[in-house]
Write a structure and sequence with these properties.
Blueprint lengths: L1 E5 L3 H4 L9 E8 H9 L3 E2 L13 H13 L8 E8 L2 E8 L1 H11 L10 E2 L2 E2 L5 H7 L1 H8 L2 E8 L3 H12 L7 H7 L3 H11 L14 E4 L2 E4 L4 E2 L4 E2 L3 H16 L8 H12 L12 H16 L11 H18 E3 L1 H16 L29 H17 L9 E3 L7 H10 L16 E5 L18 E5 H7 L4 H7 L3
Parallel strand pairs: 1-2, 3-5, 4-8
Antiparallel strand pairs: 2-8, 4-5, 6-7, 9-10, 11-12, 13-14, 15-16
Helix pairs in contact: 3-4, 5-6, 8-11, 9-10, 10-13, 12-13
Length: 490
């Protein structure tokens, strides 16, 4: 530990360290210094990497103010500040202490008042806001404004070191949420999670449309997810949304039916983000993750309004990942049909009259209960039991899987020999234009498009093959022969 440095000495004594090693100084900082530097955009008190969920209630924040004004024998616990030096220009970043510091800053910026029933030295300051306190009792106002907090200044530490300090040292025993730890892990994956789930207006980054926010009364809420607090079905705070997205990617990358635990999830993010990990220095699965979110948006957006209240975080995960798995298997999904059937199944398997779960067992082998009872946690038994029910209902449909929203697509391609034989059979002419067709320009085309599905005849067999030019094939795309002939002038 190096010399003791006050904020008044910061410019002269900090930012001098060079070389590979960082250094930590004991010191102190005033609330006034933080407010001044913050107004100059020199003090980041809410770096998204280290910004904890707002859990402190008003009474807790007011307790900090009571401590400052009335308890001179005790001090607000120290805070931890990172010093950044860019070409000799100092700026500061709060590593730890946001919650307790926010109590003071929120008061001085007019967000919260002093507590009620507060009288100091005969001065009744109950419920006053900062401007009112300044007018009524400048001495007490200055006591808050000039309050000195112990701190540690960290010079010349990298992003990785700052992340390690926050996660492994400062917050390894204080009950910090796992997603707060994951957010603080330095690397492109954590950055992508925050940017995608929240957006970042300061640099022009918009949140993904899946996480579109709307104003309801005085609150900001997610448009597509349930906000039913009475049933505990909610996806509200920024950490909750970050966690939901990170869990989605974790389960997508692993066998999602095995579920996810907080510990394995956090360990995975750490391992992937370390130097040498798959997500360092680049989020290699970004394109796959973006494709998954496009798919997820279509699924979640198609949920009928009458079922929106059931769309809690776990329901959304299962809804998306089961759809993705089966779409990969069958080839195509109709989101509206799928989501409607999903919730119809849930309703049927929850019905006390039908009791479809009778004589059925969970994935673990224990007696099964209602469908909804399995949505309490993302463990292997819960997800396995949910999937068992969905598979039972899918099997009931036999070849009519489109009732569940799935369409089987023939994944095969015509062979070069099949295309050549058909080209010769057509007299080396384009089947749609009748013009001569050079072999180099030949494209094999499904007469009934593959997208129509196997059941409707969109199969890769010789009788469903015609040869056309590559240009014509690009124009025809997934149109049927009939629609193409009717809509496209030849």
């Amino acid at each position: 530990m190096s010399e003791f440095i006050t904020c008044s000495e910061a410019v002269d004594k900090l930012g001098k360290t060079s070389g590979p090693d960082g250094i930590c100084h004991n010191g102190s900082v005033t609330v006034e210094f933080i407010l001044t530097e913050k107004s100059r955009n020199n003090f980041n008190t809410a770096n998204r990497k280290y910004q904890r969920e707002e859990i402190a209630e008003l009474i807790w924040k007011q307790g900090i103010l009571i401590t400052i004004l009335t308890r001179d024998w005790v001090r607000v616990p120290e805070i931890h500040i990172r010093v950044l030096n860019v070409d000799g220009y100092l700026s500061y970043e709060m590593l730890d202490g946001q919650q307790r510091l926010s109590a003071v800053l929120h008061f001085l910026t007019g967000i919260i008042p002093l507590p009620s029933n507060m009288i100091i030295d005969g001065s009744d300051i109950s419920g006053l806001y900062a401007k009112e306190l300044k007018q009524k009792n400048i001495k007490l106002y200055n006591k808050i404004h000039n309050y000195v907090i112990s701190c540690k200044w960290y010079e010349n530490i990298s992003d990785e070191q700052a992340s390690e300090l926050y996660v492994e040292i400062l917050n390894n025993t204080n009950g910090q949420y796992h997603q707060e730890i994951r957010n603080a892990i330095s690397g492109p994956f954590a950055d992508w999670i925050r940017d995608t789930a929240r957006g970042y207006k300061e640099i022009g980054v918009e949140a993904h449309e899946l996480f579109e926010r709307v104003i309801v009364g005085k609150s900001t809420k997610l448009k597509l997810f349930s906000q039913d607090k009475k049933k505990g079905f909610k996806l509200l705070g920024r950490m909750e949304v970050d966690e939901w997205l990170s869990q989605l990617i974790y389960m997508f990358k692993h066998d999602w039916r095995n579920g996810v635990t907080q510990g394995t999830h956090t360990k995975w993010v750490k391992d992937m983000s370390r130097p040498g990990g798959d997500y360092h220095p680049k989020f290699k699965d970004k394109k796959k993750a973006e494709n998954l979110l496009k798919f997820a948006y279509k699924i979640i957006n198609s949920v009928p309004k009458k079922y929106k209240k059931q769309l809690n975080p776990m329901w959304a995960h299962v809804l998306i990942l089961f759809a993705w798995e089966k779409s990969e298997h069958y080839g195509k999904i109709i989101p509206e049909n799928y989501t409607n059937k999903f919730f119809e199944i849930a309703k049927d398997w929850d019905c006390s009259q039908k009791k479809l779960w009778d004589n059925q067992t969970q994935y673990s082998g224990n007696p099964m209960s209602t469908f909804s009872s399995n949505f309490g946690g993302r463990n292997r038994n819960a997800i396995g039991t949910i999937c068992k029910v969905l598979e039972i209902e899918l099997d009931k449909m036999g070849e009519n899987i489109e009732e569940f929203g799935f369409i089987e697509i023939d994944q095969n391609d015509f062979t070069e020999k099949q295309i050549y034989d058909k080209w010769k059979e057509q007299g080396e002419k384009d089947a749609k234009t009748g013009r001569h067709l050079e072999w180099e320009d030949v494209a094999g085309d499904h007469i009934i498009p593959r997208s129509a599905g196997v059941k409707e005849g969109g199969i890769t067999e010789y009788h469903n093959l015609q040869v056309i030019s590559r240009n014509t094939n690009n124009i025809k795309s997934n149109m049927s022969d009939e629609i193409f002939t009717r809509q496209v002038a030849v």
